[in-house]
């Protein structure tokens, strides 16, 4: 049996581990944060792109279209929220109409199904909130929206259920090449492996250089967003893009799978760990968003966030053997979320070419089911509450998430350990009050489960404690 170490558990590492877990390899996933899906995978536009943006002939083009083709089936098997909405790219001038022609010819060359250019009037007939200034639009029926962290968690959970070992809170600090295989130095001791997969996102350049000479630079590039209350959720029915520029795909207006609306992102070079949201970034997004969809009510914004793209100077995904036994899945910028399953297939092909011999397991798990109380009918709810009264206690009132679902998140194959870990598994705190109501109760449940004081519970990454001490310190008699 070969042992394969996957460094990083965002959607790229999770997809690789998921697909490899169908074989008889020994897999260890090494992740520096205290949860999976805690890097770029949790902060992006959540679009499964159709695949007309990448230049024909690139890895991005091939893997985007194939990844998007696979997404619907994986989401069905692993019970991940996904909706095929289709997308529009808007043209506001004759010059931009030429860009649509170029994107349409990319679509044809890349094998994107169901793409066509329509008039501005037709676009407004289908999407009445679009600006009067829209002259034409490229429609692509295969684009969709997804819950990006659930996609990653579902694939990572399935890998774990198939026997993969997950090391959380474990940072890779060095890699030594052995006569056969590698010694990976981590904050929790050494791990040896026959093969290494570098899926470390914005840190993939640093991990590459631990095993091989430098061949590319990662250029971290931030994107900021507005998230809106559900009252804005129906403003548009599909993903609305503008024409891409040298800075990327531009600002989009899109529904989310949870029924909200998002507007963003911009593209600003930044430090790899810069998740700040700035007033200037937000005003840029508002102006750009209003050009496509003028009527969005910014008074209904409930949150802002930022994510960092692992852009690189290679101009394409970097998917190749850096040295025998060491595979880079590096510089996985957008459309990395859409491409993840196809990147994983290519990873397996490259490892096999490099000498990996393995065979498919007969009894691998490839399905997952979750209880989602808010989506159930009255009868179904009644049965569920009878079977366990914890499903009858609604903890998150905005999103109708019950104590039973929170407890499921704590008992899942990769149990939630933090407030945001619970949020990523069952959607608590995603609504209008942003966790103001349910947060304290979830902290109590987490503290009880892990047998620690409430002041030890973290919001998200290690060190993000929520409570620092008692406010009144017991001094008031
Ligand atoms: C603003 C923005 C919008 C985007 N929109 C879309 C979109 O709509 N559609 C789309 O397809 N793509 C989109 N993307 C791209 C997509 O989000 C990424 O391609 C994808 O999430 C990358 O996943 P990853 O697993 O490679 O990286 P990450 O999710 O960042 O995972 C890397 C993991 O490696 C871990 N790690 C790093 N260093 C170490 C170490 N030393 N030891 C152990 N672990 C380590 C990190 O903690 C992290 O968990 C967008 C990206 C951004 C930023």
Walk me through what this model shows.
The chain is α+β, with helices and mostly antiparallel strands. Helix content is 31%, strand content 23%. It contains twelve helices and 23 strands. A six-stranded mixed sheet has the order 9-2-1-13-21-20, with helices on both faces. Strands 14, 16, 17, 18 and 19 form a five-stranded antiparallel sheet that branches. The chain has a four-stranded mixed sheet with strand order 6-7-5-15. Strand 16 and strand 17 form a beta hairpin. Helix 1 packs parallel to helix 5, helix 2 packs across helix 8 and helix 10 crosses helix 11. The site of flavin-adenine dinucleotide has 40 residues, from helix 1, strand 19 and helix 8.
Oligomer: single chain
Coarse structural class: alpha+beta
Q: What's the overall average pLDDT, rounded?
A: 97
Bound molecules: flavin-adenine dinucleotide
Largest sheet, in brief, is: 6 strands, mixed
Helix run count: 12
Alpha-carbon Rg, integer: 23 Å
Beta-strand segment tally? 23
Specify the overall morphology.
globular
Helix content: 25-40%
Characterize this entry briefly.
By secondary structure, the chain is of the alpha+beta class. It is built from twelve helices and 23 strands. About 30% of the residues lie in helices and about 25% in strands.
